[in-house]
Amino acid sequence: MAILVTGGAGYIGTHTCVELLNGGYDIIVVDNFSNSNPQSLKRVSEITGKTFPIYEADLLEKEDMMEIFAENEIEAVVHFAGLKSVGESVSVPLHYYQNNITSTIILCEVMQQFGVKKIVFSSSATVYGITDNMPITEDTTLQAINPYGRTKHMIEEILGDVAFADPSWSIAILRYFNPIGAHESGRIGEDPNGIPNNLMPYISQVAVGKRKQLQVFGDDYPTKDGTGVRDYIHVTDLAIGHLRALERVQMTTEIEAFNLGTGFGYSVLEMVTAFEKAAGVAIPYQLVDRRPGDSSICYADVTKARKELNWKAIRGIEKMCEDTWRWQRENPDGYAKVIKKNKNQKTPVRQSMGFFNV
């Protein structure tokens, strides 16, 4: 029996694949590579010394998903696949609603048809919107303020309805705060398309010379240095959180949400200083006006995950910065570039690490 990992070629997906394989699980990866690179999965195989089936397929294609489930003995799903840019979601909301929500509905329909009723869902702290009540607990009111966050909230509601209608489902919803860092090998890490939307990949690209300087949005927040404070979590700790959640859904029949973070926050300028120390290079930055919708402070209450998942983030800010810098320094252009096929070119559904040509 294997674990199906949707979106397994992405940033968090690859790190979770490594931890699953090292934890003794068999995995199957499904990814359409629309915003990821097949090279990342080759590196997962290199790190772990293990091979696994890969399907280049889209969750929106129900027949393809049916074929994947028919060909394999799948016991549970870890569901990462989805579009994830907040800014882009504001520009093309219908695309986000169609892709993220419809694909999850199709996935659940196929799972139900094949009697697979255990799923770990990749949600986000964006479902909480902006709140002044810190730390954020799982009971904090959900009030997403952008289409991306609303797709996550809507999917959570859909999964809740699925579990209510059929109590034999077991579902873990993981609300991430701010994943950063990279695998300590330097072989896999965050490889954003175009200009990074998040702080750490932007800082690291400035450090390696790809960007001129960092823009710091706002220095007049009610924080120790005036810049925004966020809860940053090492991506490996986050990946291990998925293993603990998977263990839970294999033993229960319920639906629960869990915050995954460290439980405290660092400011933008504290992150800059920590990265400068780790990399040994200066990070030039420019103070600019606040961005609309940014909160001053955001960090998680992780008590529930500690008690019910037996999980805790253990990697500190120094490790987060060191691993980010190692990845960026050794991979200044991210993964080796792959020529994208023509959109009208039909790709066979099944690919395997044994003969997956990149």
From TrEMBL:
What molecular function terms (GO) are annotated for this protein? UDP-glucose 4-epimerase activity
Q: Which domain of life is it from?
A: Bacteria
What reaction does this catalyse? UDP-alpha-D-glucose = UDP-alpha-D-galactose
Biological or metabolic pathway of the protein = Carbohydrate metabolism; galactose metabolism
Q: Does the keyword NAD apply?
A: yes
InterPro entries referenced in this protein's UniProt entry, alphabetically: NAD(P)-bd_dom, NAD(P)-bd_dom_sf, UDP_G4E
Listed GO biological process terms:
galactose metabolic process
Q: Name one GO cellular component term.
A: cytosol
Which SUPFAM superfamilies has this protein been placed in? NAD(P)-binding Rossmann-fold domains (SSF51735)
Q: Which UniProt keywords apply?
A: Carbohydrate metabolism, Isomerase, NAD
Is-annotated flag, keyword NAD?
yes
Spans traversing the lipid bilayer = none
Q: Which residues form the NAD(P)-binding domain?
A: 4-324
| Cofactors (names) | NAD(+)
The subunit structure is: Homodimer.
Q: Which family does it belong to?
A: Belongs to the NAD(P)-dependent epimerase/dehydratase family.
Stated name of the protein: UDP-glucose 4-epimerase
Organism encoding this protein? Oceanobacillus arenosus
